[in-house]
Design brief:
Elements lengths: L19 H13 L24 E7 L4 E7 L1 H7 L15 H13 L3 E6 L9 E10 L5 E10 L1
Antiparallel strand pairs: 1-2, 1-5, 3-4, 4-5
């Protein structure tokens, strides 16, 4: 396995994001930021989130230290592309998830968003490529407690 952080983009330009649902969600995330800090988890209000992003979203709950990641929400487009709904599952032990875990932990540690384009190694549909925008959300103590992903598939 190569370096999972090598292909990750940590400096994001909304205009260069390849999918409209990602641009919409990134602009929402930026608008919810508090100064230089990532937005609070309270900003994850389904009534305020960009509608076009919802079917393409995956939400991970960050639990414990060291962090583990539980799928809280898996959008319909994600289920369709991967062929499974992992809602409620701890994703750390999914086959092929190791590169993604490195990126999840980076987002938790740095409290910053990232973009990546990669093969779908964590599904038996590894012939599919995906783009993912990962966005951290914080609790009242400044810890990342949710990672929200917006996906695009090809």
């Amino acid at each position: 396995m190569g370096d999972p952080l090598r292909d990750m983009v940590g400096e994001i330009d909304a205009e260069k994001l390849p999918h409209p649902q990602m641009r919409a969600m990134y602009l929402y995330w930026l608008s919810a930021c508090e100064g230089d800090a990532a937005p609070p988890v309270a900003a994850l209000d389904p009534l305020k989130l960009p509608r076009r992003a919802l079917p393409h979203m995956g939400v991970l709950e960050v639990e414990g230290d060291p962090p583990r990641f539980r799928a809280r929400l898996v959008g319909t487009e994600l289920v369709s592309a991967t062929g499974e709904d992992i809602t409620g599952q701890i994703v750390d032990d999914l086959p092929g998830i190791a590169p993604q875990l490195v990126r999840f932990r980076w987002a938790v540690e740095h409290k910053r968003p990232y973009f990546v384009s990669s093969p779908l190694t964590w599904s038996d549909r590894d012939f599919i490529r995906y783009d993912a925008l990962g966005l951290p959300f914080l609790d009242d103590e400044g810890r990342v407690v949710r990672l929200v992903f917006v996906f695009g598939f090809s």
